[in-house]
Structure of Terminase small subunit:
Amino acid sequence: MMANLNADPTKARQARRRKRQGQPGTLEDARALLWRALERAGDLLEEEDPFLSLKAIHAISQGASAYARIVEVGEIEARLAALEGQASEDTGPRIGRGQHDKETA
């Protein structure tokens, strides 16, 4: 069988990558994975090897920073969803500078 000489290798590589990756993970997946990594790094603090302990300290400081950002983003998303829910339920009059307010100002 002959290879397709007109095939775009870039598109083929991107298609293979998409097929391998499957569905993207969620923010909760990332948070859980990072928490497990932090627990593992915490266990390594007790190792006798000082070099390994220093690596664990570095991993914890980096991981804790990333974990804090993930938690913060999750909280912001929850607040935004709550505000959007309130906005969609609100059918009352809007307060602001409407056309009538501009004429009287």
